[in-house]
Amino acid sequence: MGQESLEKSILELVNGPNYHPVKPKVIAQRLGVPREEVPQLRRLIKSMVKRGLISFGKGHVVRPVSSLRETVKQIVGTFRRSEGGYGFVRPKGEFATLTSGDVFIPVSRTGDASTGDIVRVELTEPAGVNGEGPRGKIVEVVQRQTLQFVGTYFEAGRFGYVEVDGGLFPAAIFVGDPGAKGVQPDDKVVIEMIRFPTAYHEGEGVIVEVLGRRGKPGFDTHLVMREFDLPEEFPEDVLEEAREQTRAFREAVPPDRLDLTRLLCITIDPPDARDFDDAVSLEQHPDGSWRLGVHIADVAYFVPPRSALDREAYNRATSVYLPDRVIPMLPELISNGLASLQPGRLRFTKTVFVDYTPDGIVTHREFHRSVIRSRQRLTYEEVDAFLADPGHFETKWGAEICRLLAGMHRLAMILRRRRRQRGALELILPEIKVELDSSGAVCGARLIEHTESHQIIEEFMLAANEAVADFLQEKGLFFLRRVHKDPMLRKLRELNDFVAGLGIRSESLESRFALQQLLTAVAGRPEQYAIHYAVLRSLQRAIYSPRPEGHFALATDTYCHFTAPIRRYPDLTVHRLLDAVLEGRKPVTDYYQLVAIGEHCSEREERAEMAERELIKLKLLNYLQERIGLEMEAVVTGVERYGLFVQGVELPAEGLIHVSTLRDDVYRFDRKTHTLSGHRSGNTFRLGDRLKVVVARVDLDRRELDFRLANLNKNGGKALRRRGDRA
Length: 727
Fold this sequence. Notes:
Helix content is 30%, strand content 27%. By secondary structure, the chain is of the alpha+beta class. Residues 713-727 have low confidence and may be disordered.
């Protein structure tokens, strides 16, 4: 019996309804494990206990983890405070297996915790039978996310105060007499907190930096970087190591690497890309079978463990892509130079070869430390143009590259169909890229289309990631996986109610195939955006973890990130592990260390996404501040008792239509169906609705945008389009 199937059998037995805790020896007997394989079973059970899948009880009996839920009193997790003052704690590490979802924290029990802090929570109420999550109170702040905040200085009497941006705290923070800082009222400042506010006393801080007044080019970017504590310049020891790597590198093929410099490889990236992680090759044999080659920049060669480069890469964990700049994970000498797969340059790579039958079934996988020379750098737009009119490009690129692209398209579409057949989900949501002028101000926006050229690269990167994950799992190694847990049952039931409220008949949405059928059924229909937004809200966030919990959206049990080591630290850890295996060294992997690395990288990834969203939001607010009364089309992205959250279709500004502005009717909120419904027939708003809205108010300090519905007639009624019509 293989390790994976044995692990599955153990879980089925231990979590069965009639199971009583017994020792591993008894489990071996019940599963019919041969005597000579019992030591292997014992090691596997210890591994499963370390990974939080099962537990040891008194007397070394094996127990299901669910039995711990009955006795757990405290958990540790990440706190998020809402504008209403209450908050939620997302359990971290092994605590995620001991609770059912996030823990609700009432206002009076949040203590002095701030958004992003790691806190210890005492559970006061278990999860409810009707799907409500557990409740608790914060008893300790284990680790502050930050002590520094950005806000606006003002004076009251003889003292100074700072209103922290974004409504993070309910009241201004006392800063006393700022003295020598020379701060003036209305200046933006950075404060360091001395005492965090609670429900019972005010906060106190000290001004550590004066940013000045708004209006200077790049001011909003500088502000957000301070707010999220984003790194700026690389330390000198990190830069010196990068210079040493540059001086030592030679464009030659070492004897311990596979020479693939004559293999036809190309890169396909956005036109403004500066670093190139991945190149692709593809051969089709006379019998119709395929050999796909995915060649990934060998960043691990240039970033040794425990080096200054490694220390800084771990701290950053990811490159941050802001609208007007990139904050790279690695110095540009490496990210844009030595490691980047530039055309015509000899570059070190890790290569994954995957062999397929003509209809896309995997028959063989190989892994190599290699050297390639990319033949051509193409953009997504160029490849889309080629697919639309192949003959036009043969003179420009040559017949060989054109044949390669045609084959890549055929294989990618085969793999895409197979992925869909196994239940992979594909959400269609509009993605808008904000365009900036030379001063960093918004000058427009454009829709990013997920075209077939994007799908080609996506399929091949997915194939390489899955191949590496399968290989490392077969070796019995712990590694950082990309985990996307199954949706919580409560969320799926809410989704089911929402779909029923739209009048769409569907089966129980408790499997990915049912969700996939739903998404297919509404394709092109007026309700498409509503359904896709609702499905997205029902899914959990993907994270990095060594736990073998699979990837729900991709419909795969084993998955990791391998294909972007220039910009993601988890990929770098996987490269190092693969190096050890390929070199015949025994890998040293510490499960609990990987848990910690995974949590750190997941948090850094979330910080990068939040910073990008916040800066886009600030730039859009600055743009709209001068355009009060502007009319635009928007889509409903959230429905609450107090109003509708909407996002512009052509300009992705997010704001609120407060229920008090809907003066034509009295509206009732239905949480299950995410709707605001009026007493009059047809007056209903729900997720995904498209509306005509008008910019009504902009508050830059609180970062708030208010809309009102357009076309309110003089009698107070609204000329609202029928569902699905484009306003």
